[in-house]
Amino acid sequence: MDRRKLLQYALDQFGDEPEYLWSKYPTYCVLRCTVSQKWYAAVMEVPRARLELPGGGMVDILDVKCDPILLGSLLGTPGFLPAYHMSKSSWVTILLDGTVPAGTVQELLHISRSLACKPPARKRK
Q1: Quick one: the chain helix, strand, coil %, rounded to 5?
Q2: 2-33: b or e for each residue (b if 16 or more CB lie within 10 Å)?
Q3: For residue 67, is it left (φ>0), alpha (ψ between -120 and 50) or beta?
Q4: Which of 36, 64, 78, 106 could cysteine-pair with 112, CB 3.0–4.6 Å?
Q5: Quick one: how far is CA 103 from the chain centroid?
Q6: 8 A C-beta contact, residue 31 and residue 16
Q7: What percent of the chain has pLDDT over 70?
Q8: What are phi and psi of 62, to 5 degrees?
Q9: Cα separations in angstroms, 33 against 8, 47, 67
Q10: How far apart, in whole angstroms, are the C-alpha atoms of residue 43 and residue 18?
Q11: Which pTM was predicted?
Q12: Torsions phi, psi for 36 (to 5 deg)
């Protein structure tokens, strides 16, 4: 799944449009849950060398929220890396270079959104 298809999928499934927040990084965007205003995904274009990947040039990546137990199993799978610029205990980076099947990316996007859109825990009296 590439960046364009991912962002179109988020729009079609959730009605969420990407937000481009940083003028210094015009290719970076986030997807935000409209209910909680929390991010559930970040899409970035980074140098492959920064991720310690072979080859030169740039690669698109997707950071998503993830359950820590699932996170542990994903990190042993090709196409998944420790989170880039996010908490490594609850986020994972997915390469958007075709390594990870589109269905898996979509499923993880749904999981991430559900984690970010949880209503806040009720305060006890």
Answers
A1: 30, 25, 45
A2: ebeebbebbeeebebebeeeeeeeeebbbbbb
A3: beta
A4: 64
A5: 14
A6: yes
A7: 95
A8: -125, 125
A9: 16, 28, 17
A10: 9
A11: 0.90
A12: -95, -15
Rounded distance, CA 26 to CA 52, Å?
23
Alpha-carbon span 18 to 5, nearest angstrom:
12
Give the bridge partners for 82, in sequence order: 92
Tell me which amino acid residue 124 is: R
26 closest CA partner among 45, 7, 8, 40: 45
Type of residue numbered 96: L
125 — pLDDT class (breaks 50, 70, 90) = low
The position carrying tokens 């991010």 is 39
Residue 22, CA atoms < 13 Å, CB-side half-sphere: 10
Residue with tokens 């899409």: 43
Rounded distance between C-alpha atoms, residue 43 and residue 9, angstroms: 13
